[in-house]
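quick one, 432 residues, struct below
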Amino acid sequence: MTAVCYFFIYIFETLISYIYFTNKFEAKYSSKIISIFFSSSFLLQFVSNQIKTPNLNLIMFLLCNFLLCFLCYKSSVLQSIFSTVILCALMIVTEFCIVYLSKLIFNIDILDYTGNDIILILQSASSKILYFILTYIISKISFKQNNFKFNAKSSLLFLLPISSILMLIGIFYVAKTNNTDNSTYILFCIATIILMYSNIIVFWVHESTIKAEQQNAELKLQQQKSEIDTAYYSILQNQYEDSNILIHDIKRHLMSIKELSESNNNDGINQYIENLYGNYDIKYIKKYSSNNLVNAIINRYLSTFKKSKIDFFCDIRDIDFSFISDNDLTAILDNLLENSFEASDKSTDKNIELLIYPTNANYITIKLSNSCDEAPIINNGRLFTTKEKSSIHGYGIKSIKRIVKKYNGYMSFDYKESDNIFCVKIVLKTLA
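---
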């Protein structure tokens, strides 16, 4: 039973390292690969603990955590060493805190730990809970985005680990002052493990809830942005239509001005021209598609591309976009073009290519390629933002994914290092 308890205690310690490193650094690999690294680290430390050599345990802790930080996360050698030393220092400090706290409160002698397995397990579990709380706070405070804030609601969470430690110390005293039979020993061990893991579970659920609320809020903002953009493009289409009407009627307007000129009616000419400017907001639209909304979206970015000297090529076949709502069509094209502009504008070879074509009778494909000097982070088909404030970016891609799922399609990413070209491919089903 003692070996089983230490098995779960070492898993708990490995989870603490995972939480600490994940909060501080960006992962290099997928969660599956990282889990293999951490599982291997746990097994090495657990096996070395069976040798009963404290110095060996300390060396394995330092070595395994350094390798985990350096190999699994985007951290330098110095950052990995510093983080590992911080974890080690926190672990040692928390162990001494629990030992002296139990001595202060219950007058439990330090030497009692070496001769009583249950007290040693309870002491280890209490120190790991305290170790978890301190590493959690430090990782959040030193988080690169510095978006962790203590509030009344979050502070209540810390009542659980504090009460857990006090409860385990109380069990110390019971185990020391009373002879515990085998059943009581097993019961204490099971309760200790459950109490220890409940702390991580509560904090994990709390963070997951906050993250889900933030994502829902961002997605709602993205939907509102799409609605606003759709309304804007509707106004833009009307302006383009007015411009087309003016161009169509230009001969009649020129004849009227000519007649006013022949009669030397200069005031009439000025008034006529002012009326023309007042009635029409002259804008030129280049047609890429039979869909006015698609044309409006592309033309909006066309001027931006020209200012940044980005070569833009567009080929849209005769596509019927009636299957998709204006809001969803706006969200897809607007986010794609915005992201491609940001990447292409920073690249050496500035170019963007947009292709929309039918795949078969039931699907259409939207393929957008752009120059990109910095390779994006793609893990298991997922694209991760490289922007500095990653917590407030990346929702454009999430919005697109939501729409792709809505239309029973799929989205894929590809990066050609030889050409420094990033490509997004979206396939949508046109029939329900």
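The longest helix spans residues 182-248.
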